Each structure stands twice: as C-alpha cells, then as structure tokens.
Amino acid sequence: MTWILVIIGIFRFAAPVAFAAIGETISEKSGLINIGIEGIMMMAAFTAALVSEVTGSPWLGLAAGAGGGLVMGDIQSGFVIRLAADQIVVGMGLNLLGIGLSRTLYRIRWGGADAIVQVPELPDFGGWADPVVLTLPFVAWGAHWLIFKSRWGLAARAAGEYPEAAESAGFSVQMIRFKAHLLGALLAGVGGAYLSLGISGSFSEELTAGRGFVAIALVTFGRWKPMGVLGAALLIGAAEQLQFWLQGLGLGVPHQLFGALPYVLALAVLAASVQRTRAPQALAQPYIKVK
Amino acid sequence: MKEALLVLAAGAGLALLLVLTLAAFGQDVGTSLRLLADGAFGDKYGIGRTAVRACPLILCALGLTVAWRAGMYNIGGEGQYLTGAVAGGFIYQVVSGVGPVVFHVVGLLGAAAAGAGLAWFAGWLEVKRGVQVVISTILMNFIVLKLVEWLVRGPLQEPNGLLPTSERLSREMMLARPDPQTDFHIGIWVVPIAILATWFWLYRTRAGFLNRAVGENQHAVRAAGQKPAHLRLRAMMISGALCGLAGGIDYMGWAGQISDGFSQEWGFIAIPVALLGALNPFGVAAAGVYFAALFAGSKELERFSQLDSSVVLVVQAAAVLGIVWAASWMKNRQQGGSE
User: Fold this and answer.
1) Smallest CA–CA separation between A1 and chain B, in Å?
2) Contacting residues of A for B306, CB less than 8 Å apart
3) Which domain holds residue A270?
4) Which of B129, B321, B331 to mutate to test the interface with A (most CBs of A within 10 A)?
C-alpha cells in the first residue's frame, strides 16, 4: 500500500508544473514560446487563494485561478500576437507583472510578508484521491489528442513549423496561436491554483519557487510531446520526493545536492538528445500577416 | 535631437508609470513619492543604499546587454552572479592570509572568470548541442542556487560549523568604505568603468561591431567570413564575466558573507533593466540608477505603508510592456501602415 501513496505523492508534487508544462507544449507547438509562466502561476495562485478565502469555496477558487491565468494570457497575447512583439521580452514583462502584482496585493490583503495565510483547501477523497491530480493523465492525453490527432492540431503544428503554409491553406495563424496560447495560460492557471489550494493551503511570496521556469525546460525535456512532458514532470516530482525522503532519514547526505539533481538530469538529457528532436521551426518567431 | 526627445519621453513615461502604479494600489501618491525619494537620496545613507543596489543591477544588465545583442538570450544572470560570489568565497579560503589587496584582485578576477565559465558552458550547449541558452541558463540558475545551499552548509561553511553561511569577512578584508556608516564602498567605482568600457567595446571596436552584427543577421556575418558560433561564445563569456564580477563585488563590498539568501534576485531584475536601457550601456546605466533608487527608496516606503519593493517589479513590468507597445506603434507609423 505504501508504494501507492508514494506514487500519489509524486503525482501531487508534479501536478502544478505538469499542468503548466502541458499547456506550454500546446503553445510552443503553435510557434509561441511563453517565458511568462512563472508570473501567470503566481497570479493564479494568488487569485485562487483570495477567492477561496472570501467565498469559502475552494472550487470557486480553482475557477478563479484558472480565470486569472486566462486574463494574464490574454494581456500577453495582445503583445505577442497582435503587435507581433518579441516573445521573450514580453514574457519577462509578464513574469515581473505577475510576481510583483501578486506579492503587492498579498501584502495589502494579508499584511506583512511573514503573514501565514490559511485558505480552504481542495478536498481529497479517501485521503489520497485528489480530483485535480486525477484529471492530470486525462489532460495530458487530451493534449496529445488535440495536437496530434485533431484537425485543429494539424493546423496548429503547421503554424508552428511553417506559418506561411498554414495561412495559405486557409487557416488564420494569429487565431490558432491565440487559442493555443490561451489554452496554455489556462493550464498554467490551474497549476498555479493547485499550488495554493491543493498543496499548501495557503499563499506566500515564494509559492511558485521557479516552477514556471521549470515548466518551460520540461517541454524541451519531454520533446514537445504531452505524454513525454508528463513523464518528465513526474521524474522531477520523484526527485523532489526523494529529496524529502533522504532528508527524513537523516543520513547526513547533503540533501540540497539532491535538490539540484532534477535540473542536472534535465540539462544532461537535453544536451544528449536535443539535436535528435527538433523544436518547432517557427518557435519564438513573431508572425506578421502579409496584407 | 530626436534621440534626446526619445530619452525625455522615456523618462517622463517611467515617472508617470510610477505615479499610476502607486495610485492604482490606493496609495497617497505625494506621500509615497516623498518616502521613496527620502529613502533613495534623502541623506548619505540613502545615497549609499541606492549605490550598492545600482552596482549589481547595472553590472548584470551590462552583461546581459552584450549577450542579448549577440542574439543569446541569457536568462542566467542570477546563476552567474551567485557563481561569482561563490568563487570569491573559495578564493578567500585560499588567500585570506596574504592580505586584502591580493584577496580583492584575485577574488574579483576569479569571480569574473567563474561567471564567464558558467555562461560559456550555456553558450557551448547552444552552439554545439542545440540546447537553447534560454532553457539551459534557467536550469543553471536552479542548479547554482541548490549548490550554494549545500556549499554554505559544507565546504564554504564558517569555521564553527553552526550557521548556514560562509565565514564573515573582517572589516579589513572587505572593500574599503570611505564612510563606514554608509553602504558605499570602493568596489562601486568599477561600475562607471564597466559602463564606458562596454560602450566603447560595443560601438567603437571591430569585435563589438561583430557582436552586434551576429545578433542582427548571422548569415551576413557568416558570409563575411566570421564564425557566428565563436562570436556568440565570446558574447556569453563577457556576459557571464560581468555578472560574476557583480557577485564578487557584492560579496566583498556589501554582504561580506554568502548565505542562502545572498542574491536578492539581482541577476533576474537586471533583465528588465537591460531591456529598458534599450540594450545600450548608457541607457542601462540610467535605468539601473532609476530602479536602484526605487528599490532603495522602498525600504522607507515599507516602514510607513503597506507596500514594499514588490511594487517596483510592477513598475518594471509596466515599463517593459509600455516600451514594447511604443516600439511597435512607432514601427507602424514609420511604415505608414494602418493597423
């Protein structure tokens, strides 16, 4: 029975970053790289915590977190799609916005930076079956179907590889990228909301702790395939669990080094494999419609 | 003339964004601005506070400028900054007996070299292995952060082995402070030198020209018989060296010891500073001083209102997005294109 709990634990720790990374995969497949996930997750985590506290309903909180992610994504899409601005510059701007805004509003709402805030948490049935975590494999599978099996996915992949071809086949590259981007922001919002409502039951200034950046790396690690990305996220989750486990054993093993392990692993895998797996050709290139 | 107008407009825009942000959070704008100004420039302490913050911000932003100008999106300023500080810490363990001058010279050179080495590795991964610098430097930031957490409890820990921090530098071993009551230290003089040197290198040397050219159009550079990969690796090394140097200076001049919270995200916050400075060394200097003053001033704001330095990030975000918007608006107008 314990090994089931271990697996559930891995899924729980992996869930926030997995949702965000699966969303980023959809976005990147259409040619948009979103560096602003960290900011989106922070903002979503804050909105979720706030709404959950005010209404007393974690489910409304979850919806609000997803909505917060959507709003952030919508702002971003105005810059990267409509104005065809540099995606990395805008993404960094969005990070600052999400991090700065959530921290400032947190101070105004709950007082000092050291305030410990408890908000209503999402329930887990039978003590382990967390509904959000249970949907994770289905979300990954759904993303896989959307990208690789559906007609829209074919057009989205074309927009990410060779946007001119997609446009001349009668698709609107801007509209495809807009939808893909919003879907990515929505999933990042769910990931952020799950951090505050599912894992910590609170909000703090360091809640996301760089998970939004890890999500971007995971997409490359998982080779732009939702199932691969989920696997990569679970690997990171397992390494995190291992870290706590070793810490608990008190063997005098420097557990901080195990904290670095997932990132070293990700970097090593990328260095060993990236040339054999191609990124979408038009990734991070602004698309300007020829009139 | 036109450039002067643009600079003026940018300055006015930044000031306006600050006012709007403060107002948006329901603050009394006049009082808040006075608190910010007091905290940043009100007395010698304030000026010292601003100066020590401008130092890492500007040095890291200069470094990022060199890399981004060559088309290398170095996000790893944070990791390179920390690596520089750690190199300083190890060099202290070796040469602490020799005296402060040797320690400062060797330590700062070592800090720059360590930052350069880390950035070089990220560049190498891109040009040889096809791993984008954006991704690898993000990962390296985490790796370095975790390594520092371990080092200050392991090889770098203070001799008593009690606290998770490195040995505290004695006053003689720190970079000298002309007025011991303020934070200002002589290491800050590196900043104006670095600004001028970076500008001269970028705009007045062949190497700097090629650095900008490879970012604009690598095919043209290749056609001219240059190797884009070499140019980009060089850009990354210079970038990392400046970030590492910033870490070394902060260790020897400001913090005096390395601990978990050594970097207050300077390498990360330097990214908008570089962008708002339009990736031009003088622009970077101006943006760096402005935001350093806001961060220093927010110490005062924190005591008397609900806001703290986080609000500066919101101003930075608004400024970055505002500049992106203004740039595309101007581009549209120049092309006479209709939206």
Assistant:
1) 33
2) 107-108, 111
3) 7-276
4) B321
Question: How many A-B residue pairs are in contact by the CB < 8 A criterion?
Answer: 140
What is the rounded average pLDDT for all residues in chain A? 88
What's the DSSP call for residue B319? H
Partners of residue B165 on adjacent β-strands: B259
Chain B environment of A259 (Cβ under 8 Å): 146, 149
Question: Using one digit for the tens of pLDDT, what is the confidence trace for B40-72?
Answer: 998 999 999 999 999 999 999 999 999 999 999
Residue in B146, B301, B304, B335 to test binding to A, most A beta-carbons within 10 Å: B146
Residue A71 within any structural domain of the chain = yes
Altogether, the residues listed in chain A come to a count of 291
What CATH number has the domain bearing residue A88? 1.10.3470.10
Which residue, A35, A86, A9, is CA-closest to A219?
A35
In a domain, A125, yes or no: yes
Chain A interface includes B22 (CB < 8 A): no
Of B241, B107, B104, B230, the closest CA to residue B175 belongs to B104
User: pLDDT over 70 for what percent of chain A?
Assistant: 93
Q: Across the strands, what pairs with B157?
A: B166
CA distance to partner chain B, nearest, from residue A288 (Å):
12
Domain-located, residue A286: no
Which residue in the block uniquely carries the two structure tokens 């959000």?
A: A132
Task: Tell me whether B34 touches chain A (CB under 8 Å).
Answer: no
First-to-last C-alpha distance (Å) of chain A:
63
CB-nearest to A104 from B134, B143, B310 is: B310
Give the pLDDT band (50/70/90) at residue B338. Answer: very low
- Among A12-26, A198-212, B137-151, the range scoring the smallest mean pLDDT is A198-212
- A155 within domain boundaries: yes
**Cα(A174)–Cα(A172) distance, integer angstroms:** 5
Q: How far apart are CA B327 and CA B325, in angstroms?
A: 5
Q: Which 3-state string (H, E, C) describes A109-159? A: HHCCCCCCCCCCCCCCECCCECHHHHHHHHHHHHHHHHHHCCHHHHHHHHH
Could you give the CA distance from residue B318 to residue B327 in angstroms, rounded to a whole number? 14
CB contact under 8 A, A256 and B149: yes
Q: Tally the domains of chain A.
A: 1
In angstroms, what separates the C-alpha of B257 from chain A's closest C-alpha? 19
pLDDT band per the 50, 70, 90 thresholds, residue B132? confident
- Each residue's pLDDT tens digit, B269-326: 999 999 999 899 999 999 999 999 999 999 888 888 888 888 999 999 999 999 889 8
Spatial neighbors of B321 by CB under 8 A, at least 6 apart, are A79, A90, A93, A94, A97
Query: Do the Cβ atoms of A92 and B272 come within 8 Å?
Result: yes
